[in-house]
Amino acid sequence: MSDFALAVDIGGTKVAAALVATDGTVAERRVRPTAGSPDPEEVWLPVAELVADLRAVAGTGRVVGVGVGSAGPIHLPEGSISPVNIPAWRRFPLLDRLAELVPGVPVRLAGDGSCAAVGEHWRGAGQGVDDLLAIVVSTGVGGGLIQAGRLVAGPTGNAGHIGHMVVDLDGVPCPCGGRGCVEAMSSGPSMVAWALSAGWQAPVPAPTGVDLADAARTGDPHANEAFRRSGRSLAAGIVSTAAICDLSRVVIGGGVAAAHDLLFPPLREAIAEHGRLAFLRELTVTTASLGNAAGLVGAAALVLAPEAYAGRGVASLT
Question: Which InterPro entries does its entry note (predicted)?
Answer without folding.
Answer: ATPase_NBD, ROK, ROK_cs
